[in-house]
Amino acid sequence: xxxxxxxxxxxxxxxxxxxxxxxxxxxxxxxxxxxxxxxxxxxxxxxxxxxxxxxxxxxxxxxxxxxxxxxxxxxxxxxxxxxxxxxxxxxxxxxxxxxxxxxxxxxxxxxxxxxxxxxxxxxxxxxxxxxxxxxxxxxxxxxxxxxxxxxxxxxxxxxxxxxxxxxxxxxxxxxxxxxxxxxxxxxxxxxxxxxxxxxxxxxxxxxxxxxxxxxxxxxxxxxxxxxxxxxxxxxxxxxxxxxxxxxxxxxxxxxxxxxxxxxxxxxxxxxxxxxxxxxxxxxxxxxxxxxxx
Length: 293
Fold this sequence. Notes:
CATH topology of the largest domain: Aminopeptidase
CATH architecture of the largest domain: 3-Layer(aba) Sandwich
Helix content: 25-40%
Strand content: 25-35%
CATH class of the largest domain: Alpha Beta
Protein backbone atom coordinates (compact mmCIF):
# COMPACT_ATOMS: atom_id res chain seq x y z
CA UNK A 1 0.00 0.00 0.00
CA UNK A 2 1.47 3.42 -0.92
CA UNK A 3 2.64 5.61 1.94
CA UNK A 4 0.42 8.62 2.60
CA UNK A 5 1.78 11.56 4.59
CA UNK A 6 0.42 14.90 5.76
CA UNK A 7 1.74 17.91 3.86
CA UNK A 8 1.34 21.65 3.95
CA UNK A 9 -0.97 23.29 1.39
CA UNK A 10 1.12 24.07 -1.68
CA UNK A 11 -1.12 24.98 -4.63
CA UNK A 12 1.74 25.74 -6.99
CA UNK A 13 3.60 22.54 -6.16
CA UNK A 14 0.52 20.32 -6.14
CA UNK A 15 -1.10 21.95 -9.16
CA UNK A 16 0.57 19.74 -11.82
CA UNK A 17 -0.58 16.55 -10.06
CA UNK A 18 -4.14 17.87 -9.73
CA UNK A 19 -4.11 18.98 -13.36
CA UNK A 20 -3.08 15.51 -14.57
CA UNK A 21 -5.66 13.79 -12.37
CA UNK A 22 -8.57 16.13 -13.11
CA UNK A 23 -8.81 16.56 -16.90
CA UNK A 24 -12.18 18.35 -16.75
CA UNK A 25 -10.68 20.97 -14.44
CA UNK A 26 -7.05 20.94 -15.59
CA UNK A 27 -6.96 24.60 -16.61
CA UNK A 28 -8.15 25.72 -13.18
CA UNK A 29 -6.47 23.11 -10.98
CA UNK A 30 -3.98 25.45 -9.33
CA UNK A 31 -6.66 28.12 -8.85
CA UNK A 32 -8.97 25.57 -7.19
CA UNK A 33 -6.18 24.44 -4.85
CA UNK A 34 -5.42 28.07 -4.01
CA UNK A 35 -9.03 28.65 -3.02
CA UNK A 36 -9.17 25.45 -0.94
CA UNK A 37 -5.95 26.46 0.82
CA UNK A 38 -7.56 29.65 2.16
CA UNK A 39 -10.81 28.57 3.87
CA UNK A 40 -12.81 30.67 6.34
CA UNK A 41 -12.05 30.66 10.05
CA UNK A 42 -13.35 27.73 12.05
CA UNK A 43 -12.32 25.04 9.56
CA UNK A 44 -9.87 22.21 10.19
CA UNK A 45 -8.11 20.74 7.19
CA UNK A 46 -5.77 17.88 6.43
CA UNK A 47 -3.80 17.73 3.17
CA UNK A 48 -2.48 14.22 2.50
CA UNK A 49 -0.18 13.13 -0.29
CA UNK A 50 0.95 9.80 -1.73
CA UNK A 51 4.24 10.93 -3.23
CA UNK A 52 3.76 12.20 -6.77
CA UNK A 53 0.87 9.79 -7.34
CA UNK A 54 -2.04 11.20 -5.37
CA UNK A 55 -3.51 13.86 -3.15
CA UNK A 56 -6.53 14.13 -0.86
CA UNK A 57 -7.95 17.00 1.19
CA UNK A 58 -10.29 16.58 4.17
CA UNK A 59 -12.00 19.38 6.08
CA UNK A 60 -14.43 19.90 8.95
CA UNK A 61 -16.32 22.97 10.09
CA UNK A 62 -16.71 23.81 13.78
CA UNK A 63 -20.40 24.50 13.10
CA UNK A 64 -20.99 20.84 12.17
CA UNK A 65 -18.28 18.84 13.95
CA UNK A 66 -19.90 15.45 13.33
CA UNK A 67 -19.40 15.69 9.55
CA UNK A 68 -16.14 15.90 7.61
CA UNK A 69 -15.86 16.58 3.91
CA UNK A 70 -13.60 15.02 1.32
CA UNK A 71 -12.97 18.20 -0.68
CA UNK A 72 -10.58 16.74 -3.23
CA UNK A 73 -9.12 13.41 -4.25
CA UNK A 74 -6.73 13.20 -7.18
CA UNK A 75 -4.78 10.20 -8.46
CA UNK A 76 -2.33 10.46 -11.33
CA UNK A 77 -3.74 8.43 -14.27
CA UNK A 78 -0.43 6.54 -14.58
CA UNK A 79 -0.68 5.41 -10.94
CA UNK A 80 -4.22 4.05 -10.98
CA UNK A 81 -5.06 0.44 -10.10
CA UNK A 82 -2.10 0.35 -7.71
CA UNK A 83 -4.02 1.02 -4.51
CA UNK A 84 -3.23 4.75 -4.41
CA UNK A 85 -6.87 5.84 -4.27
CA UNK A 86 -7.69 3.29 -1.58
CA UNK A 87 -4.70 4.38 0.51
CA UNK A 88 -5.68 8.04 0.19
CA UNK A 89 -9.28 7.33 1.13
CA UNK A 90 -8.29 5.32 4.19
CA UNK A 91 -5.95 8.13 5.27
CA UNK A 92 -8.79 10.61 4.74
CA UNK A 93 -11.08 8.55 6.97
CA UNK A 94 -8.43 8.47 9.70
CA UNK A 95 -7.99 12.23 9.44
CA UNK A 96 -11.75 12.80 9.62
CA UNK A 97 -11.97 10.55 12.66
CA UNK A 98 -9.12 12.51 14.20
CA UNK A 99 -11.17 15.67 13.75
CA UNK A 100 -13.92 14.03 15.82
CA UNK A 101 -16.23 13.51 12.83
CA UNK A 102 -18.55 10.51 12.69
CA UNK A 103 -19.35 10.80 9.00
CA UNK A 104 -17.25 11.53 5.91
CA UNK A 105 -18.86 12.93 2.78
CA UNK A 106 -17.72 13.23 -0.81
CA UNK A 107 -19.31 16.66 -0.86
CA UNK A 108 -18.17 20.24 -1.20
CA UNK A 109 -17.76 22.04 2.11
CA UNK A 110 -19.47 25.42 1.71
CA UNK A 111 -18.63 28.21 1.48
CA UNK A 112 -15.13 27.29 0.27
CA UNK A 113 -15.29 24.31 -2.07
CA UNK A 114 -14.09 23.02 -5.43
CA UNK A 115 -17.19 21.11 -6.53
CA UNK A 116 -20.55 20.11 -5.01
CA UNK A 117 -19.58 16.43 -5.15
CA UNK A 118 -18.01 14.00 -7.62
CA UNK A 119 -18.48 15.04 -11.23
CA UNK A 120 -20.00 11.91 -12.77
CA UNK A 121 -17.40 12.00 -15.55
CA UNK A 122 -14.72 11.19 -12.97
CA UNK A 123 -15.79 7.56 -13.07
CA UNK A 124 -12.75 6.17 -11.19
CA UNK A 125 -13.62 8.34 -8.17
CA UNK A 126 -17.21 7.08 -8.20
CA UNK A 127 -15.99 3.48 -8.40
CA UNK A 128 -13.62 4.13 -5.49
CA UNK A 129 -16.37 5.61 -3.31
CA UNK A 130 -18.84 2.80 -4.00
CA UNK A 131 -16.24 0.06 -3.53
CA UNK A 132 -15.41 1.58 -0.12
CA UNK A 133 -19.03 1.39 1.02
CA UNK A 134 -20.09 5.00 0.52
CA UNK A 135 -23.80 5.65 -0.04
CA UNK A 136 -24.98 8.05 -2.75
CA UNK A 137 -27.48 10.33 -1.02
CA UNK A 138 -27.91 13.36 -3.23
CA UNK A 139 -27.41 14.72 -6.72
CA UNK A 140 -26.29 18.28 -7.46
CA UNK A 141 -25.94 20.09 -10.74
CA UNK A 142 -24.33 23.08 -12.37
CA UNK A 143 -25.79 24.98 -15.28
CA UNK A 144 -23.92 26.85 -17.98
CA UNK A 145 -24.94 30.12 -19.59
CA UNK A 146 -23.65 31.23 -23.00
CA UNK A 147 -22.64 34.83 -22.39
CA UNK A 148 -22.48 35.62 -26.09
CA UNK A 149 -26.12 34.83 -26.76
CA UNK A 150 -27.91 35.32 -23.42
CA UNK A 151 -30.14 38.36 -22.98
CA UNK A 152 -28.37 40.26 -20.21
CA UNK A 153 -30.19 43.57 -20.53
CA UNK A 154 -31.40 45.18 -17.28
CA UNK A 155 -32.13 48.83 -18.18
CA UNK A 156 -35.93 48.58 -18.28
CA UNK A 157 -36.08 46.47 -15.12
CA UNK A 158 -33.76 48.82 -13.24
CA UNK A 159 -35.86 51.82 -14.23
CA UNK A 160 -38.95 50.04 -12.93
CA UNK A 161 -37.20 49.23 -9.65
CA UNK A 162 -35.96 52.81 -9.30
CA UNK A 163 -39.56 53.99 -9.50
CA UNK A 164 -40.18 51.80 -6.42
CA UNK A 165 -37.25 53.32 -4.55
CA UNK A 166 -34.87 50.41 -5.23
CA UNK A 167 -31.34 50.93 -6.50
CA UNK A 168 -28.99 48.23 -7.80
CA UNK A 169 -25.23 48.62 -7.78
CA UNK A 170 -21.97 46.75 -7.49
CA UNK A 171 -20.88 46.46 -3.87
CA UNK A 172 -17.72 48.15 -2.61
CA UNK A 173 -15.58 47.15 0.40
CA UNK A 174 -17.00 49.93 2.62
CA UNK A 175 -20.41 48.25 2.36
CA UNK A 176 -19.19 44.88 3.62
CA UNK A 177 -20.10 45.34 7.30
CA UNK A 178 -23.74 46.00 6.41
CA UNK A 179 -23.79 43.18 3.87
CA UNK A 180 -22.29 40.69 6.33
CA UNK A 181 -24.78 41.59 9.06
CA UNK A 182 -27.68 41.25 6.64
CA UNK A 183 -26.48 37.92 5.18
CA UNK A 184 -25.91 36.40 8.62
CA UNK A 185 -29.35 37.50 9.78
CA UNK A 186 -31.30 36.47 6.68
CA UNK A 187 -29.25 33.50 5.45
CA UNK A 188 -26.10 32.18 7.13
CA UNK A 189 -22.42 32.85 7.84
CA UNK A 190 -21.38 30.84 4.77
CA UNK A 191 -23.07 33.25 2.39
CA UNK A 192 -21.69 36.19 4.35
CA UNK A 193 -18.19 34.82 3.71
CA UNK A 194 -18.92 34.28 0.00
CA UNK A 195 -20.22 37.85 -0.29
CA UNK A 196 -16.98 39.08 1.23
CA UNK A 197 -14.94 37.01 -1.20
CA UNK A 198 -16.93 38.21 -4.19
CA UNK A 199 -16.39 41.85 -3.15
CA UNK A 200 -12.68 41.53 -2.43
CA UNK A 201 -11.31 38.89 -4.82
CA UNK A 202 -9.68 39.89 -8.07
CA UNK A 203 -11.96 39.16 -11.00
CA UNK A 204 -15.03 38.80 -8.78
CA UNK A 205 -18.02 41.00 -8.04
CA UNK A 206 -21.18 41.30 -5.97
CA UNK A 207 -24.27 43.20 -7.09
CA UNK A 208 -26.76 44.32 -4.47
CA UNK A 209 -30.30 45.69 -4.46
CA UNK A 210 -30.96 48.39 -1.85
CA UNK A 211 -33.96 50.35 -0.66
CA UNK A 212 -32.34 53.28 1.07
CA UNK A 213 -29.91 51.75 3.57
CA UNK A 214 -31.70 48.37 3.61
CA UNK A 215 -30.29 45.42 1.71
CA UNK A 216 -32.91 43.51 -0.25
CA UNK A 217 -30.96 41.00 -2.35
CA UNK A 218 -27.51 40.13 -3.66
CA UNK A 219 -25.79 38.06 -6.32
CA UNK A 220 -22.09 37.28 -6.51
CA UNK A 221 -19.67 35.86 -9.01
CA UNK A 222 -16.07 34.75 -8.80
CA UNK A 223 -16.06 33.88 -5.10
CA UNK A 224 -14.69 30.38 -5.81
CA UNK A 225 -13.36 30.92 -9.34
CA UNK A 226 -13.83 33.68 -11.93
CA UNK A 227 -16.03 31.70 -14.33
CA UNK A 228 -18.57 30.65 -11.67
CA UNK A 229 -21.70 32.53 -10.69
CA UNK A 230 -23.24 32.40 -7.22
CA UNK A 231 -24.49 32.50 -4.62
CA UNK A 232 -27.61 34.64 -4.97
CA UNK A 233 -30.29 35.39 -2.42
CA UNK A 234 -33.28 37.66 -1.80
CA UNK A 235 -34.74 38.65 1.55
CA UNK A 236 -38.10 36.84 1.86
CA UNK A 237 -39.78 40.21 2.42
CA UNK A 238 -38.53 41.44 -0.98
CA UNK A 239 -39.37 38.50 -3.22
CA UNK A 240 -41.47 38.71 -6.40
CA UNK A 241 -40.02 42.10 -7.33
CA UNK A 242 -37.81 40.76 -10.13
CA UNK A 243 -34.58 41.39 -8.20
CA UNK A 244 -33.06 38.00 -8.98
CA UNK A 245 -33.39 38.53 -12.73
CA UNK A 246 -31.63 41.88 -12.59
CA UNK A 247 -28.84 40.75 -10.27
CA UNK A 248 -28.17 37.57 -12.25
CA UNK A 249 -27.94 39.44 -15.53
CA UNK A 250 -25.70 42.14 -14.08
CA UNK A 251 -23.26 39.52 -12.78
CA UNK A 252 -23.19 37.58 -16.03
CA UNK A 253 -22.69 40.80 -17.98
CA UNK A 254 -19.69 41.58 -15.78
CA UNK A 255 -18.27 38.13 -16.47
CA UNK A 256 -18.84 38.61 -20.19
CA UNK A 257 -17.10 41.97 -20.08
CA UNK A 258 -14.17 40.33 -18.29
CA UNK A 259 -13.70 38.03 -21.27
CA UNK A 260 -15.59 34.88 -20.26
CA UNK A 261 -17.54 33.13 -23.01
CA UNK A 262 -19.63 31.10 -20.58
CA UNK A 263 -20.53 31.16 -16.90
CA UNK A 264 -20.95 28.15 -14.65
CA UNK A 265 -23.92 28.55 -12.29
CA UNK A 266 -22.79 26.43 -9.37
CA UNK A 267 -24.82 24.06 -7.21
CA UNK A 268 -28.09 25.12 -8.84
CA UNK A 269 -31.44 25.00 -7.08
CA UNK A 270 -34.09 26.68 -9.29
CA UNK A 271 -33.24 25.19 -12.69
CA UNK A 272 -36.30 26.70 -14.39
CA UNK A 273 -35.41 30.23 -13.24
CA UNK A 274 -31.95 30.16 -14.79
CA UNK A 275 -33.19 28.51 -17.97
CA UNK A 276 -35.95 31.08 -18.40
CA UNK A 277 -33.90 34.13 -17.43
CA UNK A 278 -30.62 33.63 -19.30
CA UNK A 279 -31.15 30.48 -21.38
CA UNK A 280 -28.89 28.41 -19.12
CA UNK A 281 -28.76 24.65 -19.62
CA UNK A 282 -27.86 21.79 -17.32
CA UNK A 283 -24.17 20.95 -17.58
CA UNK A 284 -22.07 19.31 -14.86
CA UNK A 285 -23.76 16.66 -12.71
CA UNK A 286 -22.36 15.65 -9.33
CA UNK A 287 -23.09 12.66 -7.10
CA UNK A 288 -22.71 13.16 -3.36
CA UNK A 289 -21.69 10.25 -1.12
CA UNK A 290 -21.46 9.64 2.61
CA UNK A 291 -20.32 6.97 5.04
CA UNK A 292 -20.20 6.56 8.80
CA UNK A 293 -16.62 6.19 9.97
